[in-house]
Input
Amino acid sequence: MSGEGTEYDAARIEVLEGRDAVRKRPGMWVGSTGERGLHQLVFEVVGRAVNQVLTTGRSGSVDVTLTSDGGLRVADDGPGSPFEAGDDTGDPGLDALLTGFPTGPELSDRRHATVGHFAAGLFVAGALSSRLTAEVRYEGVRRVQEYVRGVALAAPAAPGPASGSGTTLTLWPDTEIFETTHCSFAVLAERFRQVAFLNRGLGMSLTDERPADEVRAVRFRFPEGVRDFVAALDAETGAALQPHVIGFEREDPRMAGTMEVAFLWSDSREERILGFVNSRATPQGGTHVDGFRDGVAAAVTAYARERRLLTAADPDPGADRIGVGLTAVVSVKLDRPELLGATRGQLGNADVRVRVGDAVREHLDHWFEERPERAAEAVERIVRRLRQD
Output
């Protein structure tokens, strides 16, 4: 084959930077220009609002509104942040986040929730919006700024007094970029519900002002965290064998993080175990889910052996067989999560498996000891199923 006409030099290379790079290849930043990418745009903005609230360590709320003119408004009651860079705090300032790529490392420690699949940041959200209004309420001062496709329209409005603290971002997804700008109420509501379950005490609301006949709204706040999550999952599948969810929360410095685990056995023949890392779903499981199964299997096998529900001739049942009828949520929050695969849907931290497994076995051992009647009922049901299979 002839190479004639196929030579390239530096003059042929087009280098795109900043907002031009984002707008030229939006799929690289939000996944697609369809509905999935539109939802990711929403999650980028909501994710920052959630983390603003979580940094306070107190109960707070994030209120999301789908406005009647096709916009999105995200308001939080967090501490707010300086509009310009804060010299003493190291905060880059909201304006810098909206107009330039972050220069620091991606926030991925246990204090931060990951709401979407990416971590593109506010700069991408602004660049892919035809218009964006930012309002900051910080240290008694209110600042407002307008942006058009990631560029400040004018100087910030004159500062005024602020009541309370927090940030409100209102944006309109760019119709030149997205194939649709109509968000799914159901998709957003389900993800916000998950985030509220996984962050105890966090309030999440979604209001839809688009229907002409009636505004619809949902609000989520779960004081029991993943215990409430498991109870809700079980309500979708059938009556539980146990009326109370088994659950615990623990910090373990050996895995540089915390775990929150809840589970119960039901009459279902299916296993339903959901894993999360820093509030992000891990559909392919990983070491946190493997550790949970290890711990349950070890506790159930030891209990059954001690009470001769399993004879010496019976082999130890595997974790996959003990999981029949089990509904569980395993949520870990780590300072250094190692997410594997093309979609980063599997946790790889080896130490997490050991720590979660040990903690689950210890907690379940105590639960069996404190509730002998329920323990016997649950384990006998598991053994009967094992012998039927």
